[in-house]
Amino acid sequence: MPKGQPRMMETVHHxxxxxxxxxxxxxxxxxxLVLVHGYGTSGALWLRVLPALAQRHKVFLVDLPGHGNSRxxxxxxxxxxxxxxxxxxxxxxxxxxxxxGQSMGGAIxxxxxxxxxxxxxxxxxxxxxxxxxxxxxPTLALRSTRSVFQPGSGGYPLRLLRDTLQPxxxxxxxxxxxxxxxxxxxxIATITLPTLILWGERDLLLPIDLGRALHxxxxxxxxxxxxxxxxxxxxxxxxxxxxxxxxxLSGNPLPM
Length: 256
Fold this sequence. Notes:
By secondary structure, the chain is of the alpha/beta class. The chain has helices at 50-53, 78-92, 104-115, 137-149, 158-165, 169-180, 185-188, 208-217, 233-236, 238-250, and strands at residues 11-17, 20-27, 31-36, 57-63, 97-102, 120-126, 195-200, 222-226. It has an 8-stranded mixed beta sheet, with helices on both faces.
């Protein structure tokens, strides 16, 4: 948290959905904004942008099953995550949400939007999976390690570091294997709602060519690249990231 910025008040929630214990935090007030993290992390990924986003929205930071403080019931299956989140959203009886997904969470956000379009009003995809990755598991593992330690990566907030370092070999293996085999092009073809694709030009894990391929599959989406960011722009450039997100959600012009 930047020096001099007041601490953001968060509320912690626990619920059970389809047998999974789901943990999430909320902060702020306004229209609902749901943030879905990527592989191996947790909802704490978004802590640096939470204060700005929560000034205009009620923000939901969810830990996916098997990540952070959410527990997994059975094997981890990528295509079970969107139906689970749809049940969770319906249980809360929220109006249509704005949805942000990063990396693996981007694939889940795409799937959720295609599965239950009545639940989603606007979609933001950040360095998102969803298109075929066309890379082996060892290749992605090497890219992931490089992306964490590349200069200017932004480092991890303490809570995110704690969540990420918890040993979860079964979840890591199952989710990584699922990601290698994932292909959401059929779902992507059905999406027509306002969409922003946001990508770091220095992304070592999912290179920006994947972002351009995703944009070709969603030609009506807005594509914004960040020259100084890698795979996690919410950590490297939280102020710029937050402003772009808020401008998009408000319908303001964006940098192209």
